[in-house]
TrEMBL record:
Keywords: Chromatin regulator, DNA damage, DNA repair, Nucleus, Repeat, WD repeat. This is CAF1B/HIR1 beta-propeller domain-containing protein. The lineage of its organism: Eukaryota, Amoebozoa, Evosea, Eumycetozoa, Dictyostelia. Signal peptide: none annotated. Belongs to the WD repeat HIR1 family. Residues 184-262, 509-601 are annotated as: Disordered. Residues 532-543 have a biased composition (Polar residues). WD repeats lie at residues 9-40, 58-99, 119-144, 153-194. The keyword Transmembrane does not apply. GO terms for cellular component: CAF-1 complex; nucleus. It is found in: Nucleus. Transmembrane segments: none annotated. Residues 590-601 have a biased composition (Basic residues).
Length: 601
């Protein structure tokens, strides 16, 4: 393992807010305070040293860019900014960069989406059909980015700082500075898989009746869990049995949903996300020994704090008082577990809070399996895309904690994930979660903002607000032997099919987008022809609107693309277009008045 900080002026010494690897090539992107998205290429030598090469700079946003994420197929890139815009980019294979430019790639804009405030995080669905964005207006927007439709969810009471899609496209999780983690499920898809004749309406928000049903189900499950907390070992065995049963059921469901016909039918279904779980509070487990990571939680939809409540439970996550700009959760590559950062754990009412991250099972979403303590509030979690074989040397450790942790996850393969706080990165192994594989700290002078794994799982890139990026490089097979494809679990095979479907979906939509772009070009030509007789000031103003030379023209260029994305923003561009075409419209109106038969007579 090698660790190094790359001494490059990534964004002109400005803070870096996110980084993400392209799953289809040796490229990655970074975003920062300079309003740009940078595309980088990399090569790795035998010694594990990383060589970074600048490829392109994507300029469209007029405020800092907080997030950028490649699509599952790798052919699209989504970026979100403080200016409230979400830009979908794609690499223009036919464009040739200018000879006097340092850029080696040209990226074009597919579409621009709009929200009302700052965009903090983005997440693609595994099939590429949906893109979720979270904002500082406490809302979550789920877009079908190329068809420009979306579902708006407004349930959080404070900034939403993180979002992550389930690789199996069943769930979506969000985290907010209101101290809650909300889990949404695709209700229409769930009903379709159980009954073919059922149907559900695609509402734009979650109704109160759906919340009540979920709260009743969760309260019943929590009461059962609390009653069974007398013995930790029994509780673990019950969890294992539930996991085994749920895994068997999941395998049966996967066998029914991995055909191409099912994927085609799923692509035609409309999205309808409804609330499934609200994670907010944890009940104290007095019977568990001190230092044990196993926890129980109690969900409450009532946010009022009372003395009785403080003696029986505590908040699971930090609220807005935590100095973290992002709370980025992550799903495992097989979709079996997910991890939420910025958590806090309290052993008893008299003990102090401890920063932690919670691990949940997709089948037991209201009950964390374990929690992983840290010295400071955690910011981001990211799983490696590679699944590894079990290591037999870990089994030789006969401590009770290791046995419990291995039995809790109950999987016959290993997954690697990284959890980053503001100053430390810890790398864990699902086979042995009692302590991390490695801990890396003091890499940067300022807060760590994001981490990302390469497609082969040998590079972990770390971004910081001090304006620099670091990487942790692993030798081949240093983390273990990758699992052979024949031994892949059914859930991972289904995720791979979704990614293949994502590439097909975006490719088809690209052709449609090219047709719309041609129509836009024809419209521009018509405008140019109609304005040939206009004054020179008008023509210069038109060329200035096309050439992006300063911040004012950037804003104008952004507004010109918006009418093709959201109709609500059309009035913002009307004054500029009418002011430029006043002479043209003045000439057209008299001609229309002269055309009647009176002139012919």
């Amino acid at each position: 393992m090698k660790c190094e900080t790359v001494m490059i002026l990534w964004h002109n010494k400005d803070p870096i807010y996110s980084t993400d690897f392209d799953p289809s090539s040796n490229k990655f992107c970074t975003t920062g305070f300079d309003n740009e998205i940078k595309i980088w290429g990399y090569t790795k030598n035998k010694d594990g040293h990383l060589s970074v090469e600048f490829l392109s700079s994507l300029v469209k946003h007029i405020k800092p860019v907080n997030i950028a994420r490649f699509s599952p197929g790798g052919n699209l890139l989504a970026s979100g900014s403080d200016d409230g815009s979400i830009v979908i980019w794609r690499l223009n294979q036919n464009a040739i960069p200018p000879s006097d430019s340092s850029m080696k790639e040209i990226w074009s804009i597919v579409t621009v989406l709009r929200v009302t405030t700052d965009v903090y995080d983005l997440s693609w669905s595994s099939d590429g059909q949906y893109l979720s964005s979270v904002s500082t207006d406490n809302s979550v927007s789920v877009w079908s980015p190329l068809s420009k439709t979306h579902q708006l969810i407004t349930e959080h009471s404070h900034y939403v700082q993180g979002v992550s899609w389930d690789p199996l496209n069943d769930f979506m999780i969000t985290q907010s500075s209101d101290g809650t983690c909300r889990i949404y499920r695709n209700e229409r898809k769930k009903k379709k898989t159980t009954t073919q004749s059922s149907s559900s309406s695609t509402s734009s928000s979650v109704t109160a009746s759906e919340k009540d049903k979920d709260s009743e189900d969760n309260s019943d499950s929590n009461s059962n869990n609390i009653n069974n907390n007398n013995n930790i070992n029994n509780n673990n065995n019950n969890n294992n049995n539930n996991n085994n049963n749920n895994n068997n059921n999941n395998n049966n469901n996967n066998n029914n949903t991995t055909t191409i016909e099912d994927f085609n039918s799923n692509s035609k279904r409309k999205l309808n996300l409804v609330i499934s779980n609200v994670l907010s509070r944890r009940s104290y487990n007095n019977s568990s020994p001190v230092g044990d990571n196993i926890v129980e939680i109690e969900q409450t939809h009532d946010e009022s704090k009372t003395k009785e409540e403080s003696l029986t439970s505590h908040r699971m996550f930090y609220d807005e008082r935590a100095s973290t700009f992002f709370r980025r959760p992550s799903w495992s590559p097989d979709g079996s577990i997910f991890i939420t950062p910025t958590g806090k754990f309290k052993e008893s009412p008299t003990s102090k809070y401890q920063s932690t991250s919670y691990i949940f099972s997709r089948h037991i979403r209201d009950k964390p399996l374990i929690h992983l303590p840290s010295n400071n509030p955690t910011v981001v979690v990211k799983f490696s895309p590679i699944i590894y074989k079990l290591r037999h040397d870990n089994i030789n450790d006969n401590t009770n904690t290791n046995k419990n942790n291995e039995n809790l996850l109950n999987i016959n393969y290993r997954m690697i994930f990284a959890i980053s706080s503001q100053d430390t990165v810890a790398i864990y192994d699902t086979q042995k979660t009692d302590r991390p594989i490695s801990i890396i700290s003091n890499l940067h002078y300022s807060t760590i903002t994001d981490v990302s794994w390469s497609s082969d799982g040998t590079i972990l890139l770390i971004a910081s607000s001090d304006g620099f990026c670091s990487y942790i490089s692993f030798a081949p097979n240093e983390l273990g032997d990758p699992l052979s494809e024949s031994d892949y679990p059914e859930s991972l095979k289904q995720c791979i099919l979704y990614k293949q479907r994502a590439l097909v979906n975006t490719t088809i939509n690209e052709q449609q987008q090219q047709q719309s772009n041609n129509e836009n070009k024809n419209n521009l030509k018509r405008k140019n022809e109609s304005n040939t007789n206009s004054e020179p000031n008008d023509s210069s103003a038109e060329t200035d609107s096309i050439v992006d030379e300063n911040e004012q023209t950037k804003k104008q260029k952004t507004d010109e693309v918006i009418p093709n994305t959201l109709p609500t923003t059309i009035p913002t561009t009307l004054p500029s277009t009418t002011s430029e075409n006043t002479t043209g419209t003045g000439d057209i109106k008299p001609k229309r008045r002269i055309q009647p038969n009176l002139i012919k007579k």
